[in-house]
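Reader question, answered in our methods column.
A reader sent in the components of a multi-part assembly and asked whether the whole thing could be modeled at once rather than chain by chain. We filled in our standard form and ran it. Here is what they sent:
COMPLEX SIZE: two components
ENTRIES:
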Amino acid sequence: MLTSIIQNLFNALQWGSFYSLIALGYTLVYGVLLLINFAHGDIFMVGAYISFFVTAVLLGSYTVGLPFALSGTMVLALAVPLTMILTAFVGVMLERIAYRPLRRKGVNRLYVVITALMCGLILENGNLALLGASRKSFPEILEKVVYSVGSFSMTNLKLLVIFSAILVFVILQIIVTRTKIGMAMRAISYDKFAVPLMGIPIDTIIVFTFILGSSLAGLAGLLFAMSYPVLDPFMGSLIGWKAFIAAVVGGIGDIRGAFVGGFLLGFIEILVMAVFPSTFRDLIAFSILLIILSMKPTGIFGVARTTKI
Amino acid sequence: MLLEIKDIHVKYGNIEALHGISFHVNQGEIVALIGANGAGKTTTLHTITRVPPPEGPKVTKGDILYKGKSILPVEAHILVRDYKIALAPEGRHIFGNLTVEENLILATYARKDKAQIKKDYEKVYDLFPKLTERRYQKSETMSGGEQQMLAVGRALMTGSNFIMLDEPSMGLAPLLMYDMFRVLKALNEEGMTILLIEQNAHLALKFAHRAYVLDTGEIVAQGNSVELMNNPDVKKAYLGG
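And here is the structure of the entire assembly that came back:
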């Protein structure tokens, strides 16, 4: 009984790590632009595909390969930064092509949100058109190591996922609260007009935000593909929605909120599955989140924003 | 001439807000723009700061020269970074979700002169002791007057030697208002050039060396402060007879 509880807790931590990593991207962009970037779940999907191609090339299993063989850890060590950079590039392109022109025209945020939804659909269907409907199976990079204590077991991959999510959270928290660029990010959401008056280039800060958010989606994509090695073009939409809800429950715009919200959702889902049939998972999980939100509509860490005079 | 506005026409959308105004500011001067609501004073300052549309107006004709060079093609943040022109905007526009200290730190975003930045912190806290007390407090929790001080302090922290102030006395109790103008006067004596918007024409003319009177997007009177104070039209319209 006890081992099964601990086992489930670790599963929940891993599952929650994915939600957290994606929710952080939602909350970063929202925290700066007050824009719900609904394409973010699909950027996660693109990240998973990018990691697929990156690792395939690194492993030499693709048409173009490296002239020398790399060890598994080496492949991973290269795949992480490469995937993050390439996914960040996709996110920045989206900002450039879709969101920035609208921002320049000063349109209502609602239209930007709708544009984000469309961008997500374009990414999904673009992928479908380019790569076809067949699923891709992700190669095993990291040799599986199982650590067991008594009857309780833990894989190196699970530890890697959980450790990554925590590390990312700590780094982001430091960037946002301690650095000038982080202060500028927070300042933009409060008063965009005054930001250039401080000598701060708004577009640079916004691009930086998209780089951060998208590279995290890329990292999540890679880790997800390693954990659940089947990729399809629509894998990002449901998990993206859920991560968004996790960010809202945590208090959207707050880094801590996204982190906690992601893990909270992970725990609720895993615990529901441990007790009820798995078909009940989303129904019960979201009912619980609904109750939390109706009690605290601004989310766990959110504060109601005072209107400016 | 430090700043020269030449026959500038600007539009917000399709509505022309300034119909060709010209004026200048010399190095070391305090110049005031006075006029009723909607005369185009704030629009003028927003035009100079190069804040892009939709918040800023669009220049359709004319030119703005700073130290003899046109600043029309310059981006707003570059104007602060390289030209050292600051604006303490109307309505303060402080970052309420940041602390007082963070607001001041942000204003140094583009600066590299660490030693001078340190001196400037001390100077701002010295000029506005209230800000020292509130240093680690979220700035939206401060009173309007304190927020106004922060807005001016923030403009100073950009390290600019030309500063534009849009109604710095707004929302200040009379005593604080005189305090503010005393501070500004002291800064001017140290060499700061100031372009000021003020609703209170009495106060503005007492404080500034020269002034321009704006009415519905045009300059209707100008001169040094004493001249304007004795100008019968100005007296009647802005000084209450």
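What stands out: Strands of chain A lie at 136-137, 146-149, 152-155, 230-231. The domain at 2-295 of chain A is CATH 1.10.3470 (ABC transporter involved in vitamin B12 uptake, BtuC).
Send us your own complexes using the same form.
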